[in-house]
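User: quick one, fold this
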Amino acid sequence: MNHASIATIGQTLMEHSKTADLDGKRGLVVELYPFIFGVKERLSARAISRFLNEKHDVKLSAVTITKALNDPKKYWNQFFDTIEPAVVTYENFEPSEKREIFLYDDKGFKAVQFPGREILRKQLLKFEIAQSIDLLREKWFSIDFETRVKARPYLAERLLGKVK
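Assistant:
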């Protein structure tokens, strides 16, 4: 064993923590959470970790995955934080669409068309709306329907919390 002093070990640990991409890993587990949640009944945390490492060179430990799976409310909420601005933009563009409905309407959402010559407000927001729709297609509608339905109680709880 290396006979470095405790202070030296502690200082190098502190330096490492400042340079390590810990936020990237935290963000990665949030971004991947819906998919991890979706396969949890078929694969163990260790199997998920191994698959991500071997197939995609993504290093998420089984411990990190287990921690995320043991706190679904926290991780679904963090994931919803990443898509909520796009949801709000879409709701403002299409006020008749409520998130409780359109987030689970694959056919309806995929058929969204941009206005030709509608009111000026919609024209000015067209780029922002296009970005929001793209983000929702990439991050939300790429998740299989069954997993999104399983996430519904977490989303409903979140929405109730914002009403209060």
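User: anything notable?
Assistant: The chain has two domains: 19-70, 72-164.
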